[in-house]
Design brief:
The chain is of the alpha/beta class. It has one domain: NAD(P)-binding Rossmann-like Domain (Rossmann fold), CATH 3.40.50.720. The protein is built from eight helices and seven strands, in the order E-H-E-E-E-H-E-H-H-E-H-H-H-E-H. Strands 3-2-1-4-5-6-7 form a seven-stranded parallel beta sheet, sandwiched between helices. Helix 1 (about 10-20) packs across helix 7 (about 180-190) and helix 2 (about 75-90) runs parallel beside helix 4.
């Protein structure tokens, strides 16, 4: 299948791209940074997802995964508005089979930066809207809403022993997910799954049960 993924230069997006490539799908990535992926089945477009007037012509997308996102950096423009524009551009056509939006457990708890929570909360609502509209193609649309993930974006708290201890105290499973673990969820929800749609799947090690956000003062 032809898979379009945003935010593929590192972290979750890179892990998702690699799992699809390893399973012989054609993958197209969009990211404002260069790609480190070296695979004949991969095409990379280096641009900011907010630059919607520069989006490439890509026909016949079967799977769209909206992963690109920021944290406390124009979050609504990137995490929500750009996601909407990309979905409207590539997903609403008869070749689509699934859409997955990478959200956040914070959309359900509100326990993070205000604009970040608002942007991810909007993704939850928009996911339901898209699920209704792609159903006529037999396609699904869900959001995958992780808690803590071991990515470069979170390095400032991962590398702080005192803060990390506090975070683990708030996480019942006493660990964060790896990008590869989230990628497995993404693959399941877009390829294996054909019936679950319009849902927000929280994968956070039980963190949202405690609902207390801990972060480093910058």
């Amino acid at each position: 299948m032809k898979v379009l993924i945003t935010g593929t230069s590192q972290g979750i997006g890179k892990a998702i791209a690699e799992i699809f490539l390893n399973r012989n799908h054609i993958v197209i990535g969009i990211d404002r940074r260069p790609s480190a992926i070296n695979d004949d089945k991969y095409t990379h477009y280096m641009l900011d997802v907010r630059e919607t007037d520069k989006l490439p012509q890509i026909d016949g997308v079967n799977i769209l995964i909206n992963n690109a996102g920021t944290q406390n950096e124009d979050d609504i423009d990137t995490n929500l508005k750009a996601l909407i524009k990309i979905t409207e551009r590539y997903a609403l056509q008869r070749e689509i089979r699934s859409v997955l939006n990478i959200g956040s457990a914070s959309a359900h708890t509100g326990s993070e930066f205000p604009e970040y929570c608002a942007s991810k909360g909007g993704v939850v609502a928009y996911t339901k809207n898209v699920a209704l509209r792609v159903a006529k193609y037999g396609a699904t649309c869900n959001s995958l809403d992780p808690g803590g993930v071991l990515t470069p974006l979170n390095e400032c708290v991962i590398s702080d022993p005192a803060l990390w201890a506090q975070i683990m105290n708030e996480t019942p499973l006493k660990k964060w997910a790896t990008p590869e673990e989230i990628a497995e969820w993404a693959y399941f929800l877009t390829v294996t799954n054909t019936f679950c749609t319009g849902q927000s799947i929280v994968v956070d090690g039980g963190e949202s049960i405690n609902n207390r956000f801990i972060w480093k003062e910058c």
